Amino acid sequence: MHEQTGTQENARTEYVRRDVLKGMAATGVAVPLTTMAMDAGWGGTAAASALPTEPAGAPDVGVRWLEGVPSELPGATWGTPWPKGAVAEGSSFALHGADGTPVPLQTWPTAFWPDGTVKWTGHAIPGSVAAHEEYTLGAGTPAEPESAVSVSTAGRKVTVSTGVITATIPTRGQHVVSSVERDGVTIATDGELVALGQDDIVDDIEAAPARRHAYRSWIEEVTVEQEGPVRAVVRVDGTHRRARRGKVNGRQGRLPFTLRLYFYAGSESFRVVHSFVLDSDGTTDFVAGLGVRFTVPMRDELYNRHVRLLAGGERMVAEAVQGVTGLRRDPGAEVRAAQVAGERLPDIGTWDPRVGEWMHYVPAWGDHTLSQPNSEGFSVRKRTAAGNGWVPVDQGRRAAGTGYVGGVTGGLVFGMRDFWQRHPAQLDVRGAHTDEAEATVWMWSPEAGPMDTRFYHDGMGQDTHAEQLDGLRITYEDYEPGFGTPYGIARTTELTFWAVAATPSAERLGAMGRTVGATPQVVNSTSHLTSAGVFGGLFAPVDRSDPAKAEIEANLDFLFDYYSAQVEQRHWYGFWDYGDIMHSFDEDRQVWRYDVGGYAWDNSELSPDLWLWYAYMRSGRADVFRMAEAMTRHTGEVDVYHLGEWAGLGTRHNVQHWGCSAKQQRISTAGYRRMFYFLTADERTGDLMRALVDSDETFLALDPLRKIRNEPYEPDRNALAIGLGTDWSGLAFAWLTEWERRGPKAETAEAKLRGTMESIAAMPNGFIQGEGLYDLDTGVFAEAEAAVGVSHLSAMFGQVEVCAELIDLVDMPEFEQAWLQYCRLYNASRDEQTEEVGEHFGNLILRQGHSRLDAYAAVRLGEDAYAERAWARFLDPQDGWEYAHDRDWSSTESEHTLNPADSAPWVSTNTTALFGLAAIQNLALIGDKLPRT
């Protein structure tokens, strides 16, 4: 659905202001949702009716592992919420295992309530402790780790020690990690980022290939963000520079990057979160390879050196650099068994002498490659050295993205998360037969060809806005020349490296691979997430206690399971694609409309991100968490611009994630990221949200309604036309998050938040005005004459959620009244709308999704009539594409498609997201008012 067309359909006329809340005096002032007891009949969350004068103290909270006790624990980080008024700033926390054992803990605040009490905390536990199935978190003095993380800064380097490994991070130069040592032994050196650039793409297969250029990382800034005792975080910012023979020789940087290196007490590993920004317009300067590389000293004899490439589970290619098995002469069973196990071989003098004397004739295999060009297959090959031919080893389906190079005295384990999901990816080992091997994790495989980021058509003559609107009417694509550019999009990848003292066993490497594939995550119970009163109090634990609720829950389960299966069956994978889902289905071809204008990738249209996160918080399902996590990683990076004039804006749904000319706040909104941030304390996501605090400046660069305005409009810094729906809600979420995080721009963010809230409330019709003139310098909307400009999209990109949070946080009755007016009137009759504001709202749709506005009004005003209307709109929608309660909730197997796949042509992502949010929020707010059948 398109904000521009929706706005165009609703005429804006002036009228005399009417009473916006008839009968409000009779019901009294509504109390916050979080103060309503569950036994009051509203299904809300229980909390104190007034803030205590002193913080009540942190209650004991149970936390657990998302997917069970991890078999390999490198350390873990998570976030926990606290009820308003419960935890004073500066409070300390302790963690105990299920048996009462104290667990070392590091704690820091990530958000605060307006009264100054702590709202969210981040927590970390070390990698040196035995993992428990469950833990208790509460007030107390934390246990200290047996060996704390230490961070020292001296000269031009930062040194971090976990007690097991020591990493040195230069503050300048091309190496992001100059060395990793263990017990005085150097395990890895010269860690750097590598990239390949290509000037153009050659489409003629008979033409000469395009020339490639090598790039290496160049550090511009290093920041120590945390320094223990349990967790240390070092941030490295830089660019890639041209290199020759492996050494940087260029001065001009490109592909800006941010690395965060995470170290946990007692761990032999460190985690790397790699983010880069694409600074190509998509027509030149193509990226042909992107990776992270370490040099690994090789100390052992050739026959005591090993390469391991993990397929999955404990299955792997397990090769010695110089093999002693399968030879014509037998060195002895003990020798062969030791090499297969990765253990030190007996002294060569004890072997059959015919083998020991002739070992120099046994080839040493120095180079190995595992290439995953797509989600359905990988291949492994090896060679003795550069200049010699490759020998195929084997093939498989989906590699774990984890490998090892080293010897019996130690080496480096390296792994990339979502390896096959993010194809094309590759693992390389080079020079294992020499004194120094190289291990490279390619996030974009150099064998795959360059990233083809060119726009997918030539414009088809759509040179004017009138022609572009005609194109929108036929293909739903909002095209404009020059707007389908990837310049400024980004991608974040997670990697883990272990400095081990010996070649890992199959069992150990398999456990490491599982850790690489799914970072161990501690989570809160659904009951605690609910009772803490966060995220507007718009969710409650899953309840199947009666048939009516159980039926809605079954429908919610069907929709999630269906989309989860579609990701696999339709192969929604790939470097730029993984994490997103498709927008609409093509019933005739029985495929999603991957090639039709604005019907392809969803790009957060109508808030599937929120649907998934609310679905997780009420259910605790690990599969929901992981799907929401992948979506957050995608939509916050790929669908949003991070450089250039559109930095801070996102791109509407399209065949390509960056293809649509509608660049808007509704996609970039921090509201889609903040749940993941607070649940995991992920710093990269925090960066993305902080970058949006000043995104109101983007309205100077681009008018989102430029194609459909009836009158000439030039952006004016002191009178910017900003929509009160999808535009303001995105801005408000960024300001709210910065304010509650107490970020460097918190004071400005709070002022803009309160200023816009007050000036919206002061408008004759509040949110019903549709648009206001915003002053960038004062952070308020100008006084306005009465108007009506309601769009079916205005509230569907996080506005419901941000208003619920703001009303709970900020004591501003006039703002609450303005929002409740919108909630009450959207699903009202035309006569009711006209009676209150002078005219009706036009032909509105999406009433099922808007039923949650009725539910919210029912709770705030204490009026059952709105609850009745909410359930009526939800269960018996009038729009043909919304999900009726009594429909057939099932799918069938597609016929004649490339792969077997389920099809439910009646399912669309717009409707699914709104149905999911309406079901979740209605059940939480007015679940006790649900009609029983």
UniProtKB/TrEMBL annotation:
<dbReference type="InterPro" id="IPR048331">
    <property type="entry name" value="PcRGLX/YetA_3rd"/>
</dbReference>
<dbReference type="InterPro" id="IPR048330">
    <property type="entry name" value="PcRGLX/YetA_2nd"/>
</dbReference>
<dbReference type="InterPro" id="IPR045793">
    <property type="entry name" value="PcRGLX/YetA-like"/>
</dbReference>
<dbReference type="Pfam" id="PF21345">
    <property type="entry name" value="PcRGLX_2nd"/>
</dbReference>
<dbReference type="InterPro" id="IPR006311">
    <property type="entry name" value="TAT_signal"/>
</dbReference>
<feature type="domain" description="PcRGLX/YetA-like N-terminal RIFT barrel">
    <location>
        <begin position="61"/>
        <end position="139"/>
    </location>
</feature>
<dbReference type="Pfam" id="PF19501">
    <property type="entry name" value="PcRGLX_1st"/>
</dbReference>
<feature type="domain" description="PcRGLX/YetA-like central beta-sandwich">
    <location>
        <begin position="149"/>
        <end position="512"/>
    </location>
</feature>
<protein>
    <recommendedName>
        <fullName>Tat pathway signal sequence domain protein</fullName>
    </recommendedName>
</protein>
<feature type="domain" description="PcRGLX/YetA-like C-terminal alpha/alpha toroid">
    <location>
        <begin position="520"/>
        <end position="930"/>
    </location>
</feature>
<dbReference type="Pfam" id="PF21346">
    <property type="entry name" value="PcRGLX_3rd"/>
</dbReference>
<dbReference type="InterPro" id="IPR048329">
    <property type="entry name" value="PcRGLX_1st"/>
</dbReference>
